[in-house]
Amino acid sequence: MSASPTRVLVLNSGSSSVKYQLLDMRDGSRLATGLVERIGERTSRVEHTLLTGTEPRTRSRDGRVADHDEALDAVAAELSGDGLGLDSPELLAVGHRIVHGGRLFDGPTLVDWHVEREIERLIPVAPLHNPAGLAGIRTARRLNPALPQVAVFDTAFHAHMPDAASRYALDTAVAEAHRIRRYGAHGTSHAYVSRATAELLGRPYEETNTIVLHLGNGASACAVRGGRSVDTSMGLTPLEGLVMGTRSGDIDPAVVFHLMRNASMSAEDVDVLLNKKSGLYGLCGDNDMREITRRAGEGDRTARLAFDVYVHRLRKYIGAYTAVLGRVDALAFTAGVGENSAPVRAAAVEGLTGFGLAVDPERNAAREKRARVISPEGTPVTVAVVPTDEELEIARQTYGLVAEGAEGGVRG
């Protein structure tokens, strides 16, 4: 047994799932991973993988998991079954992914009643995610009240964006009264990937300018100058910005009024339309980029349109963030689509040689899981594929705050 605790449990509580990883921070290795999905549905699934032996060992079971409390109880039971429970003396803390931290939280934060209250107060701008994150915190505390709980906020990496990037051109009194500004999201991913990209280039992080494209079902772009987010595509909520799986991204605000006035749609109807029935799904009835590229390749016009609209938006943001940064050292693709879709990567930079951007077809087509360069030798801007690791980033921030004795406890 180590002289002091070195393990961090990372909990990512979504609206209907809980993902978890147990890491040993001496080397960042995974000891166990797992997932509880379809929480609250008739049939839920619990899957747990132990990684401490010579071969991974996975066990799973089906059966209803009523709520997040029950899901966290299932996580604790699975870990305890392998001697890795929340009462383990080697467990230092639990790190929680919290989507929205508003302006108050700009770094990893030890959770107390004040922090809980603020996370709860921000539920209206993250209605699917903040309640689940809060449930994870409260259940983990119930299971081990003495164990430190750390909130790592998706918005924290963007907390110090310049006012010119973070403010909307709204009436100042209204904006301040209702805390309306651009908060961004995917901050842990953008932080991890921008740092890993600098390492891939062999450059100091504080001297590297990177455009990160986090392309999953949710998607966002981020301009990172010397390790700091200076602009990002998501705004008050995760709806703004790029075309996503089911979200529209950027849209004329008057579309909302038009639909309410002329289509007899309520505010709730429009909310559902823009968040759950738009994006790629709204354009072609599918939100899986693999299926869309297959259909487009077979001549499906709606799939081709969806692909083209998606890529057009990417190119607009690449150009915009090139202007914001002034000098770009790297363009990094990450997350499910970014890491796995060679057609999206190729199309996103096609014709942008004037910006110093190009991909090598052979490098781009290679299917590898490691961080790698896909641009030709000598290209002014390095184009890279950098797998994200949000769980490791959360664990690092949690460990840094608790083990290394960050002063002040709550940051805000």
Index terms:
single chain, 412 residues, alpha/beta, eight-stranded mixed β-sheet, six-stranded mixed β-sheet, 15 helices, 14 strands, 37% helix
Set out the fold topology.
Elements: E1 7-13, E2 17-24, E3 29-37, E4 45-50, E5 57-62, H1 68-81, E6 91-98, E7 109-110, H2 113-121, H3 130-143, E8 149-153, H4 163-166, H5 172-177, H6 187-201, E9 209-215, E10 219-225, E11 228-232, H7 254-262, H8 267-276, H9 279-284, H10 289-297, H11 301-325, E12 330-334, H12 335-340, H13 342-349, H14 361-365, E13 372-373, E14 382-385, H15 390-402
Parallel strand pairs: 1-6, 6-8, 9-12, 12-14
Antiparallel strand pairs: 1-2, 2-3, 3-4, 4-5, 7-8, 9-10, 10-11, 13-14
Helix pairs in contact: 1-3, 6-15, 10-11, 11-13
Structural write-up:
- The protein is α/β, with parallel strands linked by helices.
- It is 37% helix and 20% strand.
- The chain has helices at 68-81, 113-121, 130-143, 163-166, 172-177, 187-201, 254-262, 267-276, 279-284, 289-297, 301-325, 335-340, 342-349, 361-365, 390-402, and strands at residues 7-13, 17-24, 29-37, 45-50, 57-62, 91-98, 109-110, 149-153, 209-215, 219-225, 228-232, 330-334, 372-373, 382-385.
- The strands form 2 sheets. The chain has an 8-stranded mixed sheet with strand order 5-4-3-2-1-6-8-7, sandwiched between helices. It has a 6-stranded mixed sheet with strand order 11-10-9-12-14-13, sandwiched between helices.
- β10 and β11 form a beta hairpin.
- α1 (68-81) crosses α3, α6 (187-201) crosses α15 and α10 (289-297) crosses α11 (301-325).
- Residues 406-412 have low confidence and may be disordered.
